[in-house]
Amino acid sequence: MRQSMGHVGSCYDNAAAESWFAILKAEIGTTVWETREAARADVFRYVEVEYNRSRLRRHPDYGYVTPLETRSLLRQDLAPAA
């Protein structure tokens, strides 16, 4: 078995997570929420509404579809044939 990504101390270990959190921080800001629930709700709203549904950055490798459109297509593919 081979390790799929870098090793401890490698700059590539957390690159995807750091990129995501940089986008989140830039777009949602560095708000201080009253409670964890409020923070979760705000992040959930951002991910579901702003990021997944209306994100304009569509990648050519995925046919220029949004994450929401991709999920819908996947559900159609997985639905049992009638």
Q: What features would you describe in this structure?
A:
The chain contains three helices and no strands. 1% of the residues are buried. It is mainly alpha-helical and 82 residues long. The protein has helices at 15-28, 36-53, 67-78. The chain has one domain.
What is the strand and helix layout of this fold?
Elements: H1 15-28, H2 36-53, H3 67-78
Query: CA-to-CA gap between the ends?
Result: 41 Å
Q: Give the integer mean of the pLDDT values.
A: 77
Main β-sheet description: none
The total number of structural domains is 1
Dominant shape: extended
β-strand percent reads: under 5%
Please bin the fraction of helical residues. 40-55%
**Order of SSEs:** HHH
Give the total of beta strands.
Answer: 0
What oligomeric state best describes the polypeptide chains here?
single chain
Low-confidence stretches: none
Count of runs of 4 or more consecutive helical residues = 3
Rounded to an integer, what's the Rg over CA atoms?
Answer: 17 Å
Kindly name the structural category: mainly alpha
GO biological process, one term: DNA integration
Pfam families: rve_2 (PF13333)
Domain Integrase catalytic: 18-71
Organism: Streptomyces brevispora
